[in-house]
Input
Amino acid sequence: MIVKVLDSSLEKQYDDYLPGSPETLLFASNKYRKFLKSFLNEEDVYFVALDEQGEIKGVLPAFLKKNNEFGNVLNSLPFYGSNGGIIEFEQNETVRDLLVNEFYKFAEKNNCVSSTIISSPLEPMEEFYERTTSYTCKDSRIGQLTPLPQLTDDIDGAVMKTIHYKTRNLVRKAQKLEINVGDGPDETYLDFLIQTHQENLAAIGGIAKPEHFFRLIPSHFNYGSDYKIYVAKKDGQVIAALLVFYFNKTVEYYTPVIKAEFRNSQPMSLLIFEAMKDAVANGFTWWNWGGTWATQGGVYHFKSQWGTQDKMYYYYTKITDSSILNRTKEQLLKEYPYFFVAPFNLVVN
Output
């Protein structure tokens, strides 16, 4: 058994390997790798374990952030909520050990001050990571996922049964207000998504994803099969939009946006409902809402009303140079954008 770094000669086999489990997520995909590489402009290091016949037996995706002043950082994976970790389908401890060892060897060779593995909510492997990661600190998130109903003649009714009665009422409210839902690769929909995302985040003091991030999507993903932008219209005016990604058997609830003055009309509830119906019709089994902090009570409650299951996942961080903890939160955000270095409660205020 050997470990190589993914290159063009292994790409097809890599793409064929990932759907070996229905629980492999978008973030491990080759398309997402290329997308992140274009956006981050950092080095991708996707470790691939190969047997004697050259067949892939496991993978561990990662990105390296170089910083000559403060030290390098290795993440599996960087960017908002991008679950990484080992993908291996035969519970082969030898393969898993080999991949983790290569991850840390690479971190050491490249003078990384911090290296983090983020587990998957669908394949947490908690016992394995506890034993092998030698982590300095461990952070947690609540993964919230809705198990989608099986395909039926009454998809509308099946999805309605999945969600809380109060949420059903919100969907019906939007329907009664004659809000219409559609989707399409129309560039004006992407423009609306970008502009409204910036407005929504500014209103709550949050950090918006940059415009460049969204503009890269059409050049790396296929509309319809890889992603969709759903829009809600009232009297012909777009008032809300929802970006979702598709991979394997999971739909990623990625970016919801809404014009503030139409919030009470519940267009987002209707958008999610219609997108879930489409997901069921196309054979998807999970709707992934992404991670939630334990302190985000309102966000957690909203997602939970859509029939979610809680699936914990963890950030296993190994600090090899404690001087990085002497940097402020602001310094880390500036020097390592989109990378996880350490929990902010461990760094200086």
Q: What stands out?
A: The first helix runs from residue 11 to 17. The radius of gyration is 21 Å. The mean pLDDT is 97. The first strand starts at residue 2 and ends at 5.
